[in-house]
Amino acid sequence: MIIDDRNADAGKLHAAALRGRRIGGLDRRSFLAGSAAGLGALALGGCATSDGMSLAEAQKLYGPVPEEKFPVPAIDVSKVDPKYFRRTVAYDTKEPAGTIIVDPANYYVYRVAGDGTATRYGANVGRDGFRWNGNAYVGRKSEWPTWTPPKEMIKRQPEVAKYARGMPGGLENPLGARTLHLYQNGAYTLYTIYASLDAESIGNGITSGCVGLLTQDMMHLYAQTPVKTKVVVLPA
């Protein structure tokens, strides 16, 4: 099964960001059932990360985005391993500028700059048995998309039947603030790159094949990614 606005596992991801809150009467545990357990919270050591980014810089990079249609809260950066913070890195590839490269083995997503560098983002990826690889492209883009649980999920979890006609976009929506929908040969693969508020998911395999970036990172990538952008998913 694959995550998108018609797939069950979408609810397993973004719901984890709302620790202690409920989604229309559903607690996050009902959405997270079957996902990887024991996601570790990795605190920043001292005043700077291993990459030289200060705590203040990280907090600014992942700070609140109040001007959004649904104001986005700050990410708790103490729950993200500093190696997954967004940064520009040297990256040798023959892929053209703008290409998105997903490295599920190392939990990174790269946007190729074309000058020997790339913007690198930390990510969550598919769990064991659900990872895939190959080429795709961005077939469409969505801001604050509607999430509709599939019939299979409604059958397993009758409490989500209230969303059979769609859950409107918002902070509690499993798809998050931005979504890139991946296509192959004109057909929607049902795989996505989506926005997550769940700091603890980054650096973990928890999905059914989709890739999640922290919301602030996803907004950054989304703004630079036109439809038809090539996406390369490397073998895990």
Automatic annotation (TrEMBL):
Signal peptide positions (record): none
Enzyme class: transferase
Pfam families the record matches: YkuD
Keywords, in A-Z order: Acyltransferase, Cell shape, Cell wall biogenesis/degradation, Glycosyltransferase, Hydrolase, Peptidoglycan synthesis, Transferase
Domain (L,D-TPase catalytic): residue spans on this chain: 98-234
MF annotations from Gene Ontology: acyltransferase activity
PROSITE patterns in UniProt: LD_TPASE, TAT
Family annotation (InterPro entries): LD-transpeptidase, LD_TPept_cat_dom, TAT_signal, TAT_signal_bac_arc, Transpep_catalytic_dom
CDD domains (alphabetical): YkuD_like
EC number: 2.3.2.-
Pathway the protein acts in: Cell wall biogenesis; peptidoglycan biosynthesis
Family the entry assigns: Belongs to the YkuD family.
Protein name listed in UniProt: L,D-transpeptidase
